[in-house]
Amino acid sequence: MTYLWHEAPVPPDLPVAKVHGYLVCPSSGRVLIQDVGGTMGLPGGTPEPEDEDFAETFVREAMEENDVQVGPVVYLGYQEVREPGRPPYAQVRMAGVIRAFDPPCPDPDSNGHICRRLMVPLQDAADVLGWGEPAAAQAQAAARVAESEWGLPVDSPAAAGYVDSD
After folding, report:
1. Could you say which of 58, 84, 109, 111 would form a disulfide bridge with 94 (CB–CB 3.0 to 4.6 Å)?
2. pLDDT for 45-71, tens place per residue?
3. Which residues contact 21 (CB under 8 A, 6 or more apart)?
């Protein structure tokens, strides 16, 4: 597969398959990485017909998967995915502010798994995810937004750790 990062609107002819993003904690400057049995990923999922926009998909999925209440949300761009035997598609990337952590509950759209909530510095997110350069560019875009839009402390975040209750 090939992943191409674009800090631009999704072209109208490119279908959006997923909406994921970087949720930043305002007090620690860390970002949430969901851990499902050792598989790391960003909060998010598939747009549903009832979702008004990408922001609504992102906020809904963050609550369903990670039991996180989300404040302001900003569109970052999209990752174009090219894989053999399938037309190209987009994975939208968002950034948002964590308002609160609710107690972890099973994901209603899955086999009932509970995502562990690993909080890491934004500059470490790409390495934790193992997604290479596209993820590093996305995390940099999220850091710019977190600093410029919300004044969050992403340059000197707290150490990584799990937040599985709060």
Report:
1. 58
2. 999 999 999 999 999 999 999 999 999
3. 42, 43, 44, 58, 73, 76, 92, 93, 94, 95, 96, 142
